[in-house]
Amino acid sequence: ARDSGPRGRYYAAMSRALFKSTSLVGGMTLLSRLLGFARDIVFAQAFGAGIVMDAFFVAFKIPNFLRRMFAEGAFSQAFVPVLAEVRRQGGEAEVRDFINRTTGGLGLVLVVLTAIGVVAAPILIYVFAPGFTAEPDKYALSVAMLRLTFPYLLFISLTALAGGILNTYGRFGAPAFTPVILNIVLIGAAIGLAPHLPDPGLALAWGVLIAGFVQLAFQVPFLLRLRLLPRPRLVGRHPAVRRIMRLMLPALFGSSVSQINLLIDTIIASFLATGSVSWLYYSDRLMEFPLGVFAIALATVILPGLSAHHAARAGAAFSATLDWALKLALVVVLPAAVGLFMLSGPLIATLFRHGEFDAHDTVMAHWSLMAYAFGLAGFTLVKILAPGFYARQDVRTPVRIGVVSVAANIAFNAAITAPLALLHFRAPHAGLALATSLAAFVNAGLLYRALRRAGAYRPGAGWGTLALRVLLANAIMAVILAAGVGPLSQWIAWPGLTRAWHLALWIAVAGIVYFGTLALSGMRPRHLRAEAVAHQA
Q: At 239, which helix (H) or strand (E)?
């Protein structure tokens, strides 16, 4: 039943505001992802899936991994809830002092960490890609690239701090647009800089370094407009900053389980055939498209709201926000996962089958994309459920669950990937992707159970009917795609333009069938409103 009173109107307004912010962040992320695909197409055409790209992907993955774990993971998850609390309880002077001291402490840690990373680049490559040591040229190139890419961590972490400030004040557009800059700079480096260097691959590493600086500079005008441009100060004994430090330590692990699992994949893939790291990268990029456009955008939007609800002790609104996000995820992510699985070959062939990226690379990447597509729903649920803990400043529970998830990933790798390699299966790297997908479901299931047990989340009305409608629509869409798409060999043989219009056609057909079935089954936008949970709160 729907509540037409003040409380019902409040939850309806909250749903509209959340949807508007999610659409803004998702739109900016969509632009970034499209440019990211353009970037990857340029990379594939210029460098293929050989030594240069394997080296670059590892050299970029290390600071990127630390960025997601440290800056956009542990730091953001700890910083935004505490900033929301300081903003609610104090005045502008207290907020500025808190931001200044946080910036000073974070900046000092980052400078030291960056210096260590540059000096220890040979050791880091050995740790993150030990298989590269068997190929001296690949190892040496990876070390040279890492020394250029590692300072990216400094710039992008400070950029994440700026983004946390802007998001807390409801300014979602600028932080969401920032990743676009990285893709533009990397495309320019691959096209404009690479041909002029003795070692063209190093142009990509220079591009990462330049992009980090530009992304940070882009935040400055927006912070000035809020009069919140940080002026770094020493941390001292500021209680709120010290609380961030305490929250960050366990969150370093808990917020980055998916990245740790992907890193484990990279380490194992470094021992497999040359190209395995690249095949996993290209398939992961396609899986990250819906994850970034929707799931990460949604998680970014709900964290400040959840933090504010927790600070105001508004348990019903907290639960309603999570319920709304989970329902929206069911409607959007499940068809994306089915579509990625059914169209995995056509997507890889259309986007990357150019230049040095040959038919064999296409087949190999398509296997791992199918495995990642299977786990898309799990990855999404983790992104949505984890803010439910961090907004309540509970970082220990995700850590405990994260340990189980990483252990599960290792166990799944041993049970799936090792036998595939020993049996000389042609795509053992796909086992790595499947193990990571299964571990994501383990992570999501345990997070959900913990939120329910803590009483932080209570499902609202309408879940059963919504789930039946979504499952029916997905089943019909999958049957039509399976019957009409055709074999991968046909897609590989087609010219690029033919592949492109066929892919566009089948994506359009899938969307029409899915949303048409939902509409015919009685699905309406009002079924996604957050107000439905209010009656059980």
A: helix 239-254
